[in-house]
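Lecture notes, structural biology module. Today: joint structure prediction for complexes of two components.
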Amino acid sequence: MLPVVQLKGVTHAYLGDNEASLAIEDMNLSIDKGEFVSLVGPSGCGKTTLLSIIAGLLQPSLGEVTVNGKRIEGPSPQVGYMLQQDYLFPWRNILDNAALGLELTGNLNEETRLKTVDLLNEMGLAGKSEAYPAQLSGGMRQRVALVRTLVTNPGLLLLDEPFSALDYQIKLQLEDLVSETLRHRGTTAILVTHDLSEAIAVSSRVILLERNPGRIRKVFTVPDKIRNSPPLYARDQTGFTELFHEIWKEMELAGSK
Amino acid sequence: MEQLEQAGRSASRVQWLGQMFGEYKKQKRRRRNQVIAVRSTLLLLFFVLWETGARLGWIDELLFSYPTKVFRQIWGDMVSGSIWPHVGMTVSETAAGFVLGTLLGTVLAVLIWWSPFLSAVLDPYMVVFNSMPKVALGPIFIVMFGAGFTAIVVTTLSITVIITTLVVYNSFCSVDPNLVKVVRSFGATKTQVFFKVILPSSFPTVVSTLKVNVGMSWVGVIVGEFLVAKSGLGYLIIYGFQVFNFTLVMSSLLIIAAVATAMYQMVVYLEKLLLSRR
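The predicted structure, tokenised, for the full assembly:
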């Protein structure tokens, strides 16, 4: 089967007035349909750069990225991108915020609007369509952002630390919701996170990056038993703690480099 | 029995809350009335001092005139109708300068936002033009556009356009880049980025430059009329000055204050209307 995402020798350098700095170097990776992959690593290892490149927001200096076999040349509705904060537009109500992607891609009509409302309801946001972002709590706003990303039906979802700005309890609930929703829809996902236990709990593979320059250091496969339980319970499975420590140790080594 | 007691207690609490609230409202009303009273006293005191000062010779009556004379002059001109063409002229010049200045300034800001190249090219020119006292260009505008309406409006524009451009452009640039990233991730074009994010996000700034521009327009128009006009409130001031009729100068000043305030309030109301949903 054709991998959903394929990176071939991706290298990217940032060009400044005084120097050019290598953010990531020679990354090769392929991700299959329905996989949930996490990128972890010390800060400055190019996680967000890599995500921006896959999203088509940045053009890599070298190498190529393909999504569903097609070379990425710019942002496309096939790829959804969810940021650390919700970044809802304060001048739009919840429904209009959630339907932003449909509007931009020219797919907003009565049917998709109803679909958006349904998805909002599904995410526990029933009756909030007319409210404005300022009236919602942080967790609710992040759920609106999730609806905004999902309603355009992206085959690939990029998550840039979407849970890190939330309270712990809300974060766990949202992890469950996202992983359940993605599994249900068969969406492929790439998650960037600082939180190792989150990475292990939600994903099927954890990819550890090292910095200066950003490179893949090691790939960990999460055992089926952990992968198949909802994130909240995955943390209780045998093998979870061992894997956590294994990745932690490797990350310490990567960080000291 | 116990329930009854409890009900009685909660009823008295409701009553107590009501009393507190009534007391609070009364106090607020009292404070508001005080402010209004002191305010009007100040104004009255100013006119009374002016009047007695002029009549008793503390200040030169010829130079400063006095309120009853000024108000008589205004009233006379209003009844005879001789003041209205002047008011009309000045107001239409100000309105034209205000609307055109805001529009042109915003359009220019959009252009340089659109093209970073253009922005880099124009930057030094904008800095020079912005730091320069634009009124100094007055004579050139008179030569170019003739002594009249056009020259005055252009003088006003020279004052309003650049500052509008700078303020609006700055607000375009200070839009949270992550909001732009959100729409870019959906594959938005530059036009879409502008209309979906940049413009709505900086809308409050654009509207608040309107308020600044009202004041700027008045400066431009009055100076313009000083230089060239044959009618208008600025012309009346200069004319009164030349024939040493300071009652005319003072009355024109009072009318300008009234009309400018009215115009400013209209813009404030417009701002409230436009931003009511945020």
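Point to remember: Chain A has a mean pLDDT of 86.
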